[in-house]
Amino acid sequence: MRRFLFFAVVCGLWLAPELSAQQRLPERFGGWSASQAPVQAAPDVASKQPAEAAAVLSEAGMVQVIRRGYANGAHALTLTLYQMRDSSAALAAFGYLRAPEMVPSDLGLAAAVSRDRAVILSGSAVVEVTGLAEAAVSDLRELAAVLSRSADKTPPPPVPTFLPAAHRIAGSERYILGPVALRAAAAEFSRPALAAIADKVGFDAGAEAVLARYRDTRGEAALLLLEYPTPQLAGLHLKHIEAALGTLASSSATPIRRTGSLLSFVLPGASPAAATALLDGVRYETGVTWNEPSHTATDPPWSALVVNTIVGTGVFLAAAFAFGIAFGGVRIVTKLLFPGRVFDRRAQMQILQLGIASKPIDADDFYASWSPRAWSGR
Question: Does any domain span residue 317?
């Protein structure tokens, strides 16, 4: 029983950050009060097929969907909270939930409203408000403030900030994290090139995509940015994308530019001048952050060099003297304690004499394992 309780406590502590990151719908905001308890629901996105909505949101990292009704006198509205895995997944869900006719709003870090609907990005969650016609702007602002108190403070991914701002159609940005969402965007914007490269982009390798539409006097164009974890992956998938685009008749008019780990290209249909202007307007910069302690290298004075040289030489001499004494002392002590048993063993010694002194050569002086006299008798 104690082991089970210990295991339960450990699992609870492990899951605590996951649970604390999930947001909740408020009991009340502005003049609105909850009219029912929050319930789990399936994704229900306006003008989207239920199967497509479930696939796109699940691919982005949907954790759960919570829906709750609110009332203000005789009026009613509904809040739907899409809890996502992290802030990147929430930004992808926000782009998918936002309808083309919705206009940007300052309710939060990212928000869009229409006559009867609003979508608010709140940390790692997206809150959809339906039945908005009877709600005041002050009510929405208070709702956004209540949601921000418990929102995840992790900043959103920086890829959308690389998009050029000039001539961009407001609300056309779409942050994408998977091939299903990319194919859905291809169908929505009538861009077959997106469907052709959906499986070649490399989302399984950590790629992030952002799509936006532009309009000026030269017409309309669509710009797609793909960021990879490393420049090597960007170069590898560039070849795959070019091969996939090669199946399109207009692939020759699709310029692709690689800058570090970012691929940027204009989808077919834009004029060469418009495509070049969009590619030149991409605001991508790499930066190196140095956060290690630094010091200034200077040459030491000559007096320190002389002293260090003398000290170093003395250390080497002392070490050589100590090792010499130790080596010689071990040999002397060993000879005194074990004479002829470790060093100078006659059975393993051979002494050669040149005979340059006055002393006559005596074969008995040759300590060897063989007998000189035995050889002289042969």
Answer: no
The string of DSSP letters for 208-269 reads EEEEEEEEETTEEEEEEEEE-SSHHHHHHHHHHHHHHHTTSTTGGG--EEEETTEEEEEPTT
Residue bearing tokens 């074990």: 338
Token pair listed for 235:
């170069």
Residues 61 and 166 in one domain: no
Q: How many domains does the chain have?
A: 3
The SS3 assignment for 92 reads: helix
Residue 327 belongs to some domain of the structure: no
User: Given this model, what pLDDT does residue 10 score?
Assistant: 44
* 125 within a domain of the structure (yes/no): yes
Residue 163 and residue 70 share a domain: no
Tell me what the mean pLDDT of segment 215-238 comes to: 90
| Same domain (yes/no): 178, 218 | yes
Same domain, yes or no, for 184 and 208?
Answer: yes
- Of 140-154, 285-299, 332-346, give the range with the top mean pLDDT: 140-154
CA dist., res. 203 & res. 153, Å (int)? 25
- Nearest one of 250, 246, 292 to 267, comparing CA atoms: 250
Range of the domain at 180: 159-280
pLDDT confidence tier of residue 363, bands split at 50, 70 and 90: low
Sign of CA pseudo-dihedral 107, 112, 117, 122: negative
Tens-place pLDDT, residues 244-258: 887 664 444 567 889
